[in-house]
């Protein structure tokens, strides 16, 4: 199966599932298979690897169980509050308020499960579409930056996935320090920055500072040492601009930055 075809199917699947609050493995699998069939009826579905879905099974069950509990607590408190108001029972209302505060904390914990990337602890792709956008359009003005780690595949291949995971976590922690900016991991070694700043050079100056900080030092993992750097591209956006259009722009700028760093003549690419 071609990588380009798999990306099309994955993107279509994620787009359809974004509106759902909870996604079970069965829902994901069925949606993915239907999208795959619509692309090419002759593709052998047995060759498609769904290991990534099973890895999140415990998380999904926890979300469903806690959501059910939260819903029941909310219903019970509404009933109790109605009775307490009728009886003007201030003590009961105080207890209900405490229960609702606890419920709010539980809901926040669920949001962390849904919207936080397990590995890097920054936001994930779902957060971008649910919280930063509305109908895939921006809800405020700002700057979008696409970031990609250089030669990340070689880090995984030569030094192991643990070295790669630690590199991702390190980069994410550095990106989180940028003021007035939210960080999201799209997947793999790709990150997005959504900034309310209006000066692209200010963002890119910070990112270039991250690269400079790695120039004179190497990362060490066990007996191995290796270099780390990032490539990036930024564009301004306005309220109601289409996210996919701006995202394509910053992706292209990131690619140009990457090949410029390699000393490739862009006119021949």
Can you describe this structure?
The protein is about 60% helix and about 15% strand. By secondary structure, the protein is α+β, with helices and mostly antiparallel strands. The protein folds into 3 domains: about 5-55, no CATH class; about 60-115; about 125-269, Reverse transcriptase/Diguanylate cyclase domain (Alpha-Beta Plaits), CATH 3.30.70. A 5-stranded mixed beta sheet has the order 1-5-6-4-9, with helices on both faces. Strands 2-3 form a two-stranded antiparallel sheet. Strands 7-8 form a two-stranded antiparallel ribbon. A hairpin with a 2-residue loop joins strand 5 and strand 6 (about 190-195). Helix 1 (about 5-15) crosses helix 2. It is elongated, with a radius of gyration of 23 Å. The relative contact order is 0.09.
Tally of helical runs: 10
Number of domains: 3
Radius of gyration: 23 Å
Q: In CATH's first tier, which class of the largest domain applies?
A: Alpha Beta
What can be said about the biggest beta sheet?
5 strands, mixed
CATH architecture assignment of the largest domain: 2-Layer Sandwich
N-to-C order of helices and strands: HHHHHEHEEEHHEEHEEEH
Number of strands: 9
Helix content: 55-70%
What is the mean pLDDT?
Answer: 79
Approximate shape: elongated
Measured by DSSP, the beta-strand proportion falls in: 15-25%
CATH superfamily of the largest domain: Reverse transcriptase/Diguanylate cyclase domain
Residue windows where pLDDT falls under 50 for at least 5 positions: 41-55, 265-269
By CATH, the topology of the largest domain is: Alpha-Beta Plaits
Q: How is the largest sheet built, in terms of strand order? A: 1-5-6-4-9
Structural class comes to: alpha+beta
Q: Give the CA-CA distance, first to last residue.
A: 26 Å
């Amino acid at each position: 199966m071609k990588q380009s075809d798999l990306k099309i199917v994955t993107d279509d699947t994620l787009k359809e599932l974004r509106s759902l609050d909870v996604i079970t493995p069965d829902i994901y699998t069925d949606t993915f298979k239907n999208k795959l069939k619509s692309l090419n009826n002759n593709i052998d579905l047995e060759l498609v690897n769904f290991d990534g879905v099973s890895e999140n099974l415990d998380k999904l069950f926890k979300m469903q169980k806690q959501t059910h509990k939260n819903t029941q607590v909310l219903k019970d408190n509404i009933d109790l509050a109605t009775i307490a108001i009728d009886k003007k029972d201030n003590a009961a209302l105080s207890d209900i308020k405490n229960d609702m505060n606890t419920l709010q904390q539980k809901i926040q914990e669920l949001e962390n499960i849904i919207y936080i990337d397990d590995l890097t602890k920054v936001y994930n792709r779902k957060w971008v579409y649910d919280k930063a956008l509305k109908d895939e359009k921006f809800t405020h003005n700002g700057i979008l930056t696409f970031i990609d780690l250089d030669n990340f595949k070689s880090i995984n291949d030569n030094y192991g996935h643990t070295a790669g995971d630690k590199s991702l976590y390190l980069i994410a922690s550095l990106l989180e320090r940028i003021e007035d900016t939210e960080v999201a991991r799209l997947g793999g070694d790709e990150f997005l920055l959504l900034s309310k700043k209006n000066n692209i050079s200010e963002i890119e100056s910070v990112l270039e500072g991250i690269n400079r900080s790695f120039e004179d030092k190497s990362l060490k993992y066990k007996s191995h040492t290796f270099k780390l750097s990032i490539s990036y591209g930024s564009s301004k956006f306005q309220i109601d601009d289409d996210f996919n259009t701006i995202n394509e722009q910053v992706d292209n700028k990131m690619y140009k930055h990457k090949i410029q760093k390699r000393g490739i003549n862009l006119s021949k690419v």
